[in-house]
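Why Aldo/keto reductase? Reviewers of the renewal asked for a concrete example.
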Amino acid sequence: MKNVEFHNGNTMPQIGLGVFRVEDGEGCKDAVAHAIVNGYRSIDTAMIYKNEESVGEGIKEGMKHADIERSDLFITSKLWLDDFGRGNVEDAYNTSLEKLDLDYLDLYLIHWPGTDEELMIETWHEMEHLYNNDKVKNIGVNNFNISHLERLSQKTDVKPVINQVEFHPYLVQSELKLYLESRKIIMESWSPLMNAQILDDETIKEIAQEVNKTPAQVVIRWNIENGLVTIPKSVTPERIEENIDVFDFSLSDAQVNRINALNKDQRIGSDPAKFNGKK
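Here is what the prediction returned.
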């Protein structure tokens, strides 16, 4: 497994298991455990997913069967907008730890910037407090655009190590990617397979034939070639195994560029500039 290095010197596996929209229960626990047994070392959840307890159970089961320690894993969860503001962040963090049955997180993220800039800044100060007091190994953000990150840099001291955003062949976010690279903030993709929609794209299928891999493996490998961290979601054992089996081939520059050229600026998620947590 390849790692990426943060600007603070810490590292993170380049592929992890995402559990967005995975219902709390046996299926979630089994998916997490199966992932760990099959080489995954990064698991990404969030308070709002309402599955942290099952994720925690899966982590313990996976560690036991893989015969690894907690320090071998990289666990991420996220702060929801309802828990923004002074006095709320540490409580929310501790609640996530309790549900996951862990002593610490490797990465804690602000899940969305929200539409109240001052509240966002205040909340990041609380995240800094967690980090500076060694309660969490790394802090970062989700779904932040350039203007959000600029405001953070002007008003706060600790730079996010990562920005997890929607990124797939129909939404390559090249301007944001260049911005993050210039500031040594890692870019991470959620929903890299676009809820499986991208797997029917003709270009993706053509390249899959060229490299004798599946369309999903091509898209995940494309993420890696672009230098991103990625967290494809699956609860199917075979697909969990397939999604991490991407380190025995590479894409040519021409193939990467063909996929980059599929961009349509098409989102399947909410617009970060407008989302306030309400449906």
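The chain has ten helices and ten strands. This is the kind of structural detail the renewal will allow us to pursue systematically.
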